[in-house]
Hints:
The structure holds 2 protein chains of 2 kinds. In chain A, 0% of the residues lie in helices and 50% in strands. Chain A has strands spanning 3-6, 10-12, 18-25, 34-39, 46-51, 58-60, 68-73, 78-83, 92-100, 109-113, 117-121. In chain A, the strands form 2 sheets. In chain A, strands 2, 4, 5, 6, 9, 10 and 11 form a 7-stranded mixed beta sheet that branches. Chain A has a 4-stranded antiparallel beta sheet with strand order 1-3-8-7, with no helix packed on it. By secondary structure, chain B is an all-beta fold. In chain B, 0% of the residues lie in helices and 50% in strands. Chain B has strands spanning 4-7, 10-13, 19-25, 33-38, 45-49, 53-54, 62-67, 70-75, 85-90, 96-97, 101-105. The interface between A and B is medium-sized, with 24 and 22 residues.
Amino acid sequence: QVQLVQSGAEVKKPGASVKVSCKASGYTFTSYYMHWVRQAPGQGLEWMGIINPSGGSTSYAQKFQGRVTMTRDTSTSTVYMELSSLRSEDTAVYYCARQRTTLFFPWGWFDPWGQGTLVTVSS
Amino acid sequence: EIVMTQSPATLSVSPGERATLSCRASQSVSSNLAWYQQKPGQAPRLLIYGASTRATGIPARFSGSGSGTEFTLTISSLQSEDFAVYYCQQYNNWPTFGPGTKVDIK
């Protein structure tokens, strides 16, 4: 079955960087775009960006431009999200989610989601 | 950016009753709208896409309707496992989510 398994929880100090991984299985990795979405404690869902696992192209939400980098490793069917210059407001659960879409439409819905990775930023 | 709003913020419903959740977009998103259910400590789960198509394995008591800027998620007869937070998401452009509606037990 289609599954996204993320790396474990992280604790970082302000100013540091964090890199979260998301390993895909059960489908052709390069055939589906992948998104990253985060959720601060008790808050809603916030879209961060998208990566095309086939060519590696990315598009980031303006809020995270310059601080986020999404990459992929096709040999291990894994995507990565690195967020730099961490601040306390970046404390959140970070999810990867596979995009599904109708033919030729650039955007889509998310299914499935990874289990989430809690990143805590604290001095 | 397309701004999504949801109402009400909290909906108190008794088991077996009908729940109607609303989602509004700041501009037309056609039918490019999805609904998700999220329970505490879990990742969101896709319920509806294309405004009205149920995802695989989703019970028929969940239904979605609407197009353009106004959308509705209806749960026809609430079961105990349906008490959760529900989010709408538009994908007509860069994805954006509504703030969520919490459905709790009356």
